[in-house]
Amino acid sequence: MAKMRNICYRTVRVVDSKESCTATLLAAKSFEFLHGIAVGKEEWMPMSPITFFFLVVGIWTPCANENRYPSEFTKLWLDLGSDDSRIAYQAVLRMVSASEPSIAIIEEKLTPMPPLDRTRLPKLIAELGSIDFKLRERADRELGGLAELAIPFLKESLRGDVPLETRRRIEELMQRHGGVCLSSDRLRAMRACEVLERVGSQKSWELLKRLAGGAEGHHRTVEARASFARKKS
Fold this sequence. Notes:
Blueprint: H1 2-8, E1 11-14, H2 22-35, E2 43-46, H3 49-56, H4 72-79, H5 85-97, H6 99-109, H7 121-127, H8 133-146, H9 151-157, H10 164-178, H11 184-199, H12 202-212, H13 219-232
Helix pairs in contact: 1-3, 4-5, 5-11, 6-11, 7-8, 11-12, 11-13, 12-13
C-alpha cells in the first residue's frame, strides 16, 4: 500500500491543451476538485490516488496528433473537401502558411492508391447486398475508396440479375464517384495536392511523387501527376 501511495503521488505537469495529453488536463481538474487548489499552466502537481487509478485503467490517453500537428489541422483537412469554395480556399491558404503540420496531416490522410485487385471486386459488389450490416458498410467503404476505378465494374454488374438493395447501393456509388459533381474525397485530394505544390519544399514534392506512383487513373494519382506537369511547364 505504501509503495502504491508513493507511485500515486508522482508529479505530472499541466501544459497547454494543444501540447498535452488528456491525462494531465483531467489530472489538474481532479487535483483542484480534491484539494481546492487551482493549478496553473506550466506548474507541477501531485497525482492523487484517484487520478492514478483512472490513468492506470486507461481512461486517459494521449492525443493522437500530439507530436505531428495541432488539432486545428484536423478541421482544415475536412475543410479541404468543402462544397463551399471560400471555406476550402481559406483552408488551402492556412495550410500553405504552416507547411510542416500541413505536410504531416496530408501524409497521414492521403496515401498512394494501391494497384486495383480485380479479383476482389466481384466479392465486394456481392457484399453490398449482404444481410450483415458490417459487411455491407465495409464493401461500400472499400468500393467508395476505389472511386472512379470501380465505376466500369459497377456498370457491368448492373447488367446482370442484381437484387434491388444491391442495385440501389451500386447506383448510389456510381452517382457519388462517377457523376458531374466531384465528391468531397476527390475535392480534398485535389486541394491537398495544391497545398503540397504551393508549399514547394523537398518534402512536399517527395510526398507528391509517392502519390503520383499510385494506381493508374485514380484521382489521387492524377492530381499528383498534374502537379508535376505544372512544375515542368
